[in-house]
User: Fold this.
Amino acid sequence: MKKRKRICIDINSILPLVSRGYLFGVGRTVYELVTALDKIKEDLPFDIVLYSQNTKNISSKNLGFSFESKHLSLPYRDSINRILSFFAVREHFTKADLWHCPHNSDWVGKLSKTIFTLHDMIMYACLDEYPPEIYKKAQATVLHNMLSCKAIIACSQSTKNDITKYLGVDPDKIHVIYWGINHILFKPLHDKERLKKELNQKFGLDKPYFFSVSCGYGRKNTVELIKAYNLFAEQNPTNDLVLIWNNYGSDIKELIQKNDRIHILKSIGDEDLMKLYNGATATYYPSKYEGFGLPILESMACGTPVVTCKNSSLVEIGSDMAIYSKSEDAEGLRESMENIENNRQDLQDIRSRGIAHASQFTWEKCAKETIKIYKKYLYE
Assistant:
């Protein structure tokens, strides 16, 4: 019998789910992709092995996946991964015919047998996000990896365009596969009275509210959103502002201390996130740059309108179902709040069209498209 080919997926980005209980953007997408692949495991013409690396012996076994698990009890650090890649230790250890690194970039032993998922080009498009020395190091590794690897998966056409623009990679080597939505989780809740009680009891939210997730400085533009709401609050509006933001500084504390109608929540799990989407009048996602924009579709899937900006992938993902702010600054965002508050837009129509739009993005579709890429490069 002919030996089956083996594909190894590095799942280190999803292991924090075991210790922390929730995941951020890239980790969430990797988890959902592997979950979708696991559901169709019996139909795959090749074997998948999941690779983990840490000293706590946390592996895919802790996450309930049925794929074969390979674990190295070593710290998952840049310096160690560099040494491992020099000797192709992980590739030999897993006996992988094709290696998939789904978390942007890493040190890899056999680039000619590696597929990378590159989620965005922040290290080139947003040079003011991190200290120059960090970007310089990241840029050098990413450039080398993307030029030498077997193939690249991009989560949007916008990201593909940026990879070609900044790195000079042949566009034929880059394959666009959209992320999906967990529609079992992110869906409309119809018992609004019960939802209101739950949100009030758990988070103290007793008024309608605008909602923003994935908050942060720089490109996330949350500071302008807060300034916009402070301006809007002068009109004594119906809606509060609710932000999910784990790490913010004293400058933000000063901004929100001026207004007791701004609520900041931390460490929110997916179930509560779904309820917060459902309870919102509108979700604000005023980012200046995104490789995809997952909160846009999550909010739409819950039947909540989304206000975002016309840049990067946001128009591609939001299509004509999102509400676009006239500008990315406080005045443009304030005006959108006023329009929604005063019912100047048909929100019911936007809600129904948003649900239909989000339904087109599924992890099953993402998994099947990923399998096509595996087949293309595994057997050529």
